[in-house]
Amino acid sequence: MKIPKLHVGQRLFLCVLSIFAIFAASLILFQQSRERQYKRDAINSQLQEYNYRIYGEIERSGGEFSHPDSIMKALPVSNLRLTIIDEGGRVLYDSEHGDVTTMVNHADRLEIRGARNEGSGSDFDRNSTTTGRAYFYSATYFPAAKVFVRTALPYDEVLIDNLKADQHYIWFALFLLCLLSLILWQFLIRLGNNIESLQNFALKADRNEELTEKEIESFHNDELGDIAKRIVRLYKKLKETQEMQTRLKKELTQNVAHELKTPVASIHGYMETLLTNKDISEEMRLRFMERCFAQTKRLSALIQDISALNRLDDMGKEMLSDEPVDISAIIATVMNDTALQRAEHKMTFCNKLPENVSVRGEYSLIYSIFRNLTDNAIAYSGDGTTINVKGHETRGSWFFEFSDNGVGVPEECLPRLFERFYRVDKGRSRAMGGTGLGLAIVKNAVIRHGGTISAMNRRGGGLVFLFSLKK
Predict the structure, then answer these.
(1) Is the pLDDT of residue 58 over 60?
(2) Phi, psi for 94 (deg, rounded to 5)
(3) Which end of the chain has fewer beta carbons closer than 10 Å to its terminal beta carbon, N or C?
(4) Which one of 145, 163, 181 terminates a domain?
């Protein structure tokens, strides 16, 4: 029969309980030994007192050590045995034996040896060769008279009871052990359940199985349970993020394929017409060639934007250049580069930034922020509109407001403006030559520079982008 394996809480409980039990048993044995020794010392002290009293009475009555019977009658203990022994171990008097001449020499008795060496000695639970009974002996040596006075109590039931250790604290110790065991059991079972649940989570995570909310709630509300819940939730969040990244990559691949398909199909169609139709007029041929060129420009812009996004995705903050970037110079460059496009749409660019605005970062990425926002405004704000750029410095960062007074976008579209390939008006966007990646590049470039960005509709019409860049 296979013995079931104990889980960690049970093993820990048995281990700690064993330590508690060993400690309690050691403490009980130590306490019993101390208490018994204390009681022996107390009886020995009392017998020593009797020894001194007897010796004093004998000295006052003339120093006759062989007949102290009257002194024995004056003692408060009726069953006390008295023995007087000379320095050589010969018995001079014994209250339990009339003819002391027949008694053996007592020089080798434990209590006599102790009294000779230290002035007093004792022995307990030793059978007497004279009476055959067990006694508790206590002897005192008196050098002036060169005698040992020894008193003894019979080792009977009364003395045994007196020497017994008190059992009440044993039951108290056992009660405490049981109480501690119960508390420990409750605690360690919770601990073991948390560890077991965490182990099950690790197994499921290793097998890439789905985790339910019920499994998260199975952890108890203690420190380990809270840590385990955080680990599980972090794992779920990481897994969801990975799934979202996989989905986004798939969508990106599909969108790229779709975006490439349209210009490639147009170029293919125009080139096929030019190659197969030999009688096409020169004017039509030139028009088709111009359209092919426009589609190649669109393809080139799309490839450049995809490359820029890939570069941003692969780039960590530690890979960014950390150099001063003059924002005022970038705005001047953007205004100059887009002058012809703005002129076609009769648009005005109003720079309201303070002088000498500077941040730290990578020039090309910061340029792409303002250039893409400008291109977006030119493409979608409408003819005759105005682009405004403002900024102010707060707590080590520059906060910028880039706005136009055009048509704006529907409110439900605002949260998705920074998604890759997202377009509010897809038909118009493709007609304008947009790739759908400009605002995604803007957001990634801002984040890479430690900033944040958001978009909202402007009161009175138009779109406002609010973003920050660290100095």
Answers:
(1) yes
(2) -145, 125
(3) N
(4) 163
Q: Which of the listed residues 134, 163, 192 is the one where a domain comes to its end?
A: 163
On whether residue 367 sits in a domain, the answer given is yes
For tokens 């019920």, the residue is 214
Please say whether the beta carbons of 136 and 155 come within 8 A: yes
Q: What is the edge-to-edge ordering of all strands in the sheet holding 81-86?
A: 91-94, 81-86, 147-154, 134-142, 120-127
CATH of the domain at 382: 3.30.565.10
> In angstroms, rounded to a whole number, what is the distance separating the alpha carbons of residues 152 and 134?
9
| Burial of 456 (C-beta count, 10 Å sphere; 0-12/13-18/19+) | middle
CA atoms within 13 A on the CB side of 414: 15
Q: Taking residues 155-168, what's their average pLDDT?
A: 67
Decide if pLDDT at 260 tops 80: no
Q: For the residues 228-242, what does the mean pLDDT come to?
A: 72
Residue 127 domain-assigned (yes or no): yes
Measured in degrees and rounded to the nearest 5, phi and psi for residue 389 equal -125, 125
Kindly write down the DSSP assignment for every residue of 382-397, as one continuous string. -TT-EEEEEEEEETTE
Alpha helices by DSSP H, 93-222 = 110-118, 157-163, 168-206, 213-217
Domain that holds residue 433: 315-470
At residue 90, φ and ψ (nearest 5 deg) are: -80, 135
Q: The tokens of 90 are what?
A: 């010969």
Pick from 88, 149, 89, 142: nearest CA to 119: 142
Cβ atoms 338, 374 nearer than 8 A? yes
Burial letters 273-294, b for 16+ CB under 10 A, else e:
eeeeeeeeeeeeeeebeeebee
- In one-letter notation, the amino acid at residue 221 is N
* pLDDT, the chain, mean: 79
* Structural domains in the chain (count): 2
